[in-house]
Amino acid sequence: MTRADAIIIGGGIHGCSTAVHLCLKGLRPVLVEKDYAGRHASGVNAGGVRQLARHTAEIPLSIRSMGLWERIADIVDDDCEFESHGQVLVAETGEELAACRARVAELEALGFSHEELIDAAELRRLVPAVSDSCPGGIVSRRDGAASPARTTTAFRRKAGHLGAIVREGMGATGIRRQDGLWRVDVGSERFEAPILVNAAGAWGGDIAAGLGEPVPVETVAPMLMITSRVPPFIAPVVILRGRKLSFKQFGNGTVLIGGGHLATPCRDTGETILDWRKLQESARTVFELFPVMRGATIVRAWAGIEARTGDDLPVLGPSAVHEGLYHQFGFSLHGFQLGPGAGAVMAELIVDGSTATPIDGLGIGRFARPSPPPAPRGQP
Amino acid sequence: MTSIPQRDAYDVVVIGAGPAGLAAAALTAGAGLATLLVDENMGPGGQVWRAITTTPVKEKRLLGDDYWAGQRLVDDVRASGAEILQRATVWSLDRTLEVGLSIDGGARLVRAKRIILATGALERPFPIPGWTLPGVMTAGAAQTMLKSSGLLPQGRVVVAGQGPLLWLLSAQILRMGGMIDLVLDTADRRNRLRALPHLPPFLTSPYFFKGLAMMREVRARTQVVGGVTSLAARGSGRVEALAYEAGGRRSEIPVDVLLLHQGVVPNVNLAMAAGVRHRWDDVQLCWVPELDERGESSVAGIHVAGDGAGIGGASVAVHRGRIAARAVIEALKPEAGLALADHATLASELARAERGRAFLDVLFQPARQFRIPADETVVCRCEEVTARDIRESVALGATGPNQLKAYRRTGMGPCQGRLCGLTVTELMAEARGRTPAEIGYYRLRAPVKPITLAELASLPKGEDATKAVVRG
Ligand SMILES: Cc1cc2nc3c(=O)[nH]c(=O)nc-3n(C[C@H](O)[C@H](O)[C@H](O)COP(=O)(O)OP(=O)(O)OC[C@H]3O[C@@H](n4cnc5c(N)ncnc54)[C@H](O)[C@@H]3O)c2cc1C
């Protein structure tokens, strides 16, 4: 039995970030990852570092995280290929622009200023390739993108350098509380600690349920595709308000096309089965909107496995039932940007008992309250 | 021959019209199963019988009897009722047995009850310094030009490497009046001793005489240097010279065209992308799909035949194609299976065809230095990653080809690892003191061949486009 200060289950960006921040606060955690760090959502996502268009309940966390992204190299000794060319939400119709206007007004009333309403002229300046008929949109200028595999790997490496015990290639099993401590088996090893962090991504719901705290969560697998190199034509990350499309061109000219169309996940094997008819819709939209892309080839398409909760918000914070248990999963397709901040917040909750970052709407307790069941959602 | 698939769903889709695919499709279609045979080339034949129906080279002697033997299989498949789709590139296959293919600039999805993958072999990467220079190409590429358009390499031609195809290609070039200045044989002489136990069956196999005759033919007409232990192409803008070492002596010669080849390995990209489990073959030094004795893979309904199942050559491929076809017929239309030779007969025919292979496999194991290059050599051509870059990433903590992507863009370019994958696996295995099996391979994703955005956008919305995708 090896004693540690905390056991973290899951080597995605969240588990790795929490490991780093616990180490920075002087703790010695053990980080357990059943495959390898970054194998799932955290290593294969779109890399969008976005405060734009977030649910208000997670905006403070996102802003906290943004501050960390801006000095990411100081934290993990790697620039993570983070770059900040802004993210732009494009309105294609007057109606969509009106919705944008209402959104920005709502945020301003809450005291948030990161989203800015832009008119057609500013939109054209930021994204010259966009159709003349688009009347405007919203920009979040500090947003950007980073390399997901590189970022998650950098956090994992840093955690190791700071003294975390890292175990990859074997899952944590036999999760139990005995004699006031959390215990898990990892292959033939056993670990115990007063603290357990459930950062198991798409598998986090099972762990929570196994410990008597079920939450409404489904496994989804959003798809992405990347094209061959095309001449630079777009700097910010672009999201269409009215369609399922997001768009990002890298420095080397390749273009990442996403937008939330779903593949079929196989959680047991980690595989995903792509839905080409849905990818065809994305291809068609890009074909129509950006003529420069028409000759490009699709080099690769893939999907990542992620947990989506009933209200599209993560489960973050202490357990409502057990002492020493903390949840950090269910990031519902937008948890990459939140990784650095969520790890810092988690370390504060664990070590200091509180955090200055408001995360009120994110606790697991919200599902225990009697409330109407969430609206049924279409299966992929 | 048709120009788009005539149906949305087939009993069997056979992918690849080389020896294995032709043999398989002829049987399944002959048994009355709706069979689609797809192939990306202009005509049937695969690599061995490339352009068999169209080649401008009409004098039979030039390409050899084995080449013309393909004609019968082509005739059989044409008579069988199989739907044959040439110039159709399969870019996706998944465990639901949905096939994505492109033809004439448009994309299509078709369903199958069974798949026979007969995607053949690829040339093993041959990463030497300068292998990316224009003027350096693979022997296979040269052979493709020869067979389909009768084009011969021009100028000072050097052929370097080893393996049966190297000698065959050299013989074909010389027979057609082409010039070869020098053949550099990199076969590792130490392999001879190791191969010795496998010699007896080889001596009575057809490979023995054919191989010997071909080597003699080449040696009679051009200079051959054996025991070559290092190669480096040099030049600015294109290849100008080749430095090599043989028997401890260094030489450098001017070249205009350098043809490289060190054997072939299964083309596993489509099978891997479909989720088929593969294992590392310690003798052939490559990945091969895990198959049962009827050629069925770990993914139910996907069979693999031909060189894609492990290198065996054309006649082995034909037998494996028949075995897979028989298994498919038995599963889908058992009464038609009764008319066919039984499995035991097919299996013993296969064993006969495989005789002598084990000797060749050991004899032609490429030497370490030609598989695991020195630091300066480019490994990943698409992203220009060198062996040093990879070793440094390992030192930083990269544990396998997929983890490497967090450090370098290896394998993320358009070749999808075809030109670097084996090198990366073996290089990382050596650097980490692990076996290639422990290190693993890139997780491959569709499209396994690039398709254009326009092609994908043209995919017809099927009648079930809006229905759930969960099936089978
Ligand atoms: C295609 C795609 C695109 C996306 N794009 C963006 C984007 O642009 N911006 C953004 O902010 N977010 C994006 N996201 C969301 C983001 O990737 C995820 O929210 C985030 O990575 C979740 O991190 P995680 O650490 O919770 O989960 P994961 O990365 O899934 O990590 C959880 C880990 O836990 C491990 N695990 C599970 N059970 C056990 C066990 N018992 N023992 C040991 N280990 C276990 C798993 O193997 C896994 O590696 C995207 C997601 C996908 C799939």
Chain-wise SSE layout:
The complex is a heterodimer of chains A (380) and B (472).
Chain A lengths: L1 E2 L2 E4 L3 H12 L4 E5 L7 H4 L3 E2 L9 H11 L2 H5 L10 E5 L2 H16 L6 E4 H7 L9 E5 L3 E2 L2 H14 L3 E4 L3 E7 L2 E6 L2 E5 L1 E4 L5 H7 L6 E11 L9 E4 L5 E4 L5 E4 L3 E5 L4 E3 L2 H14 L7 E7 L2 E4 L5 E4 L6 E5 L9 H13 L29
Parallel strand pairs in A: 1-12, 2-3, 2-13, 3-9, 5-15, 13-23
Antiparallel strand pairs in A: 4-8, 5-7, 6-7, 10-11, 11-12, 14-17, 14-18, 14-20, 14-21, 15-16, 16-17, 18-19, 22-23
Helix pairs in contact in A: 1-7, 1-10, 3-10
Chain B lengths: L8 E7 L3 H12 L4 E4 L21 H4 L1 H4 L1 H10 L3 E3 L2 E6 L4 E6 L2 E12 L3 E3 L12 E3 H11 L7 E6 L1 H12 L6 E4 L4 H6 L3 H5 L2 H16 L1 E3 L2 E7 L6 E6 L2 E6 L2 E6 L1 E3 L2 H5 L4 E4 L4 E4 L12 E3 L9 H19 L1 H4 L5 H12 L2 H7 L4 H4 L6 E3 L4 E2 H10 L4 H4 L16 H12 L3 H4 L11 E2 H5 L15
Parallel strand pairs in B: 1-2, 1-6, 2-3, 6-19, 8-15, 9-10, 9-15, 10-11
Antiparallel strand pairs in B: 4-5, 5-6, 7-16, 12-13, 13-14, 17-18, 20-21
Helix pairs in contact in B: 1-4, 1-11, 5-6, 6-9, 11-13, 16-18
Flavin-adenine dinucleotide binds next to α1, β3, α2 and β14 of chain A.
Give a verbal description of the structure:
Chain A: This is Sarcosine oxidase subunit beta. Chain A: Its EC number is 1.5.3.1. Chain A: Keywords: Oxidoreductase. Chain A: It comes from Chelatococcus caeni. Chain A: GO terms for molecular function: sarcosine oxidase activity. The complex is a heterodimer of chains A (380) and B (472). Chain A is an alpha+beta fold and 380 residues long. Chain A folds into two domains: 2-79 and 147-215 and 311-368, FAD/NAD(P)-binding domain (3-Layer(bba) Sandwich), CATH 3.50.50; 87-137 and 218-308, 2-Layer Sandwich (D-Amino Acid Oxidase, Chain A, domain 2), CATH 3.30.9. In chain A, 27% of the residues lie in helices and 28% in strands. Chain A has ten helices and 23 strands. In chain A, strands 5, 6, 7, 14, 15, 16, 17, 18, 19, 20 and 21 form an eleven-stranded mixed sheet that branches. In chain A, strands 9-3-2-13-23-22 form a six-stranded mixed sheet. In chain A, strand 10 and strand 11 form a beta hairpin. Residues 375-380 of chain A have low confidence and may be disordered. By secondary structure, chain B is of the alpha/beta class. Chain B folds into three domains: 9-122 and 265-340, FAD/NAD(P)-binding domain (3-Layer(bba) Sandwich), CATH 3.50.50; 125-262, FAD/NAD(P)-binding domain (3-Layer(bba) Sandwich); 372-439, Arc Repressor Mutant, subunit A. In chain B, the strands form six sheets. In chain B, strands 1, 2, 3, 4, 5, 6 and 19 form a seven-stranded mixed sheet that branches. In chain B, helix 5 (139-149) packs parallel to helix 6, helix 6 (164-175) crosses helix 9 (206-221) and helix 16 (387-396) packs across helix 18 (421-432). Chain B is globular. The model of chain B is unreliable at 463-472 (pLDDT under 50). The structure holds flavin-adenine dinucleotide. Residues 9-15, 32-35, 39-42, 45-48, 50, 171-172, 199-203, 222, 224, 258, 303-304, 306, 329, 331, 333-337 of chain A line the site of flavin-adenine dinucleotide.
